């Protein structure tokens, strides 16, 4: 018996306890203050997202409380804020309009189950295929969208509103020079609220956005028929919500990773988001996901652990249920100033300077991601556009590395073609064009020692070359094929099958 065997479990347990202590107790004061700031900023956003979806404000508020609290426990990224979002709300509009709230709740539950399945299937690993250019475009687009969302509070308003927003921004940026013990956004909310109440300044406040609930959420089962027809109605919406929610959450997790120089568990985040959405559907809330704006507020206010996200959810519930009358009087200019700060801080200003220095393809991907996201107001479309362009540019670069050289034997009857590079759909046409099929040869050797055959397009190109040479009467040998390429060719190629040449001659 080896003594070291007894060390395994205690080491794992110690690491787990250390992680738990760090995530929940390592930054208590800053996490609680950051959570309070986030909770205050969440209220008007949750109300507005409810309005977008066509439901009562309490649906979005309850969802924001539930999702924040549950993802704090189950999620894979500490300090990331998840709640009701516009990205998921817009997908529910038609469902609510045609079938009502109960179907929305059922769709939320199903979306959560799909996200849990995605986590167990390790789909969080797809983030490896999102390039730095797409990430930068995603961040810049979000910054622009956050600012554009504030325009209704900046246009057609009184000069007092503009003055208060300017005062809020001054507090946000200047107060940290005095002390960083208290987050400056929290100071902004307190000071501007006190000013409006003391001087009776007439500006829009949180209460103008919608009525705040005065009761705790209760457990309920969506009142819908459990049949195939219901599944046909909610599944398309649930699938869309699950996909968009995970995409935005995983992208936001990567951004918070960079901001905090820490790593997150993307597959655990998928499961955590799913558990949160499933549970939220049973307390009358709508589906949500990670919020880049609120996550930025949290991190910039000092939030680093799971406690900050948990506190945001709990403070939100306390504020709307217990202190609703006071919260309703918070002036919107204070929250607008905070969101403008988030917009400025989120935008990657260095990316503008880097447009000249970076490769043109990288800059195009970044700009296309920004343009697609801003024009459609759909983060999923923007990111997919960027990923698609990245893939096309990558394929183009790999195809350019491909080359075919040849050498004629001294007798002039045999030519050896040496293929180097990656043979796939983007290089298949160049591969075919590299051969002279009209040269009078007895034997052709195609040496693929330095090449790899990747897909059906490559196999089809190889078939075409071999059969064309054989049609001209030449014997063709393929040499140097690696094991993976050989497996693919043996499975898909047709040039050695009986009757292939006859069919080609028939054409």
Structural class assignment: alpha/beta
Q: State the separation between the terminal residues, measured CA to CA.
A: 74 Å
Average of the residue pLDDT scores: 89
Q: What's the arrangement of strands in the largest beta sheet?
A: 3-4-5-6
Q: What amount of the residues lies in strands?
A: 5-15%
Taking the sheet with the most strands, its summary is: 4 strands, mixed
Q: Order of helices and strands, N to C?
A: HHHEHHHHHHHHEHHHHHHHEEHEHEHH
Helix content: 55-70%
Q: How many DSSP E strands?
A: 6
| Overall body shape | elongated
Give the number of helices: 22
- Low-confidence parts, pLDDT < 50 over ≥5 residues? 1-10
Radius of gyration: 30 Å
Describe what you observe in this structure.
It is a single chain. The protein is built from 22 helices and 6 strands. It has 507 residues and is α/β, with parallel strands linked by helices. The strands form 2 sheets. It has a 4-stranded mixed sheet. Strands 1-2 form a two-stranded antiparallel ribbon. The longest helix is centred in the middle third of the chain and has 33 residues. The radius of gyration is 30 Å and the shape is elongated.
Observed structural traits:
four-stranded mixed sheet; disordered N terminus; two-stranded antiparallel ribbon; 7% strand; alpha/beta; 22 helices
Task: Summarize it.
The chain is an alpha/beta fold. It is 64% helix and 7% strand. The chain is built from 22 helices and six strands.
Topology:
Blueprint: H1 8-25, H2 28-53, H3 57-74, E1 82-84, H4 86-89, H5 93-99, H6 101-120, H7 132-148, H8 159-178, H9 184-199, H10 228-260, H11 266-281, E2 288-290, H12 292-300, H13 306-322, H14 324-327, H15 332-346, H16 350-357, H17 360-376, H18 379-401, E3 403-408, E4 414-423, H19 428-433, E5 443-453, H20 456-471, E6 475-479, H21 483-492, H22 500-506
Parallel strand pairs: 4-5, 5-6
Antiparallel strand pairs: 1-2, 3-4
